[in-house]
Amino acid sequence: MNPLTMDLTVLLPSLIPSSQSVYVLVFYFVYLAVAGEILPGKVIRGALLSDGSQLRYRCNGLFALTLLIAILGICAKLGIVSPLVVADRGLELLSATFIFCVLVTLALYVSGRSSSDKSSSLKPHVSGNLVHDWWFGIQLNPQFLSIDLKFFFVRAGMMGWLLINLSILAKSVQDGSLSQSMILYQIFCALYILDYFVHEEYMTSTWDIIAERLGFMLVFGDLLWIPFTFSIQGWWLLHNKVELTVPAIVANCFVFLIGYMVFRGANKQKHIFKKNPKTPIWGKPPVVVGGKLLASGYWGIARHCNYLGDLMLALSFSLPCGISSPVPYFYPIYLLILLIWRERRDEVRCAEKYKEIWAEYLRLVPWRILPYVY
């Protein structure tokens, strides 16, 4: 039999969602919906929308994640659920999640087209192009049972990424294949994800929450792309042994720490500036162009310096895999392409919105992402 045919006979059945994979997803989403509503957390006002309204976000993601891991840990100890359920049914869960994304986007499209709401959050933006409206979405902040779906989906994606990693870790321990590379990868990802939830309120001032409508692009990106592709390095290390030298480990840690400092520092400065434009940046009064655009701190170095930090972090997640294969570098390569595309879109929108102010900002901050390079 042709090897390709043999591979397909194994692959195709594993892509068909089983009842267990559906139960896992249903439990996961129901838990997040309930936990998000009842667990205590800091309530944050979102950005001021064009109609003067502000959405409220309950930032209890860290509590919800910690409690979920504790529940799953206890259930695994009692033999109620296997910690390997995700690692063993990864493709099933991926295909089930994809089907869920398609169904959700279809529901969003239909409800958006039929909406007559005039508020900034729910006002339908219909271009007349079905593909465009399905991909980019029709409404800015659609809700279901009072749950803000955009905020909910990105939370689900980030938690899902950690849960997949933990299941991969359990699998490597069971198989006896746990390595320094796997430990390094797991630590970096866990720190990044936990940091996201510690600073979850910063998400409320990001472009995705403020400006992007909720369509297939964000639904698929949050629920499937983040957890299943950002964990490729873990899947790869599960089947490939990589031995790292001490200098390589030190260099990898250095890339992670610098990336984290730039990424978190830039996002924190932006969030604080939006809350109080007079707050000092690096101990000095902020340089503000036209009373709207921050041009000091990290934002005086490059117009999208947070992207540089994000790219360094993505690279640090892949470096533990060595350089024998390009597969583990899918995430940083994809992220580079995505962020350049997004940065170009952002620049066009900002030029239209701020006009002369934007031209002055370009003069003060000429570099896009990496100073003296791009």
Automatic annotation (TrEMBL):
The chain crosses the membrane at residues 20-40, 61-81, 93-111, 152-170, 182-198, 218-238, 244-263, 283-301, 313-341. GO terms for molecular function: Delta14-sterol reductase activity. Keywords: Lipid biosynthesis, Lipid metabolism, Membrane, NADP, Oxidoreductase, Steroid biosynthesis, Steroid metabolism, Sterol biosynthesis, Sterol metabolism, Transmembrane, Transmembrane helix. It is a multi-pass membrane protein. Pathway: Steroid biosynthesis. Its main location: membrane. Its EC number is 1.3.1.70. Gene3D superfamilies: 1.20.120.1630. GO terms for cellular component: endoplasmic reticulum membrane. Belongs to the ERG4/ERG24 family. This is Delta(14)-sterol reductase. It comes from Arabis alpina (Alpine rock-cress).
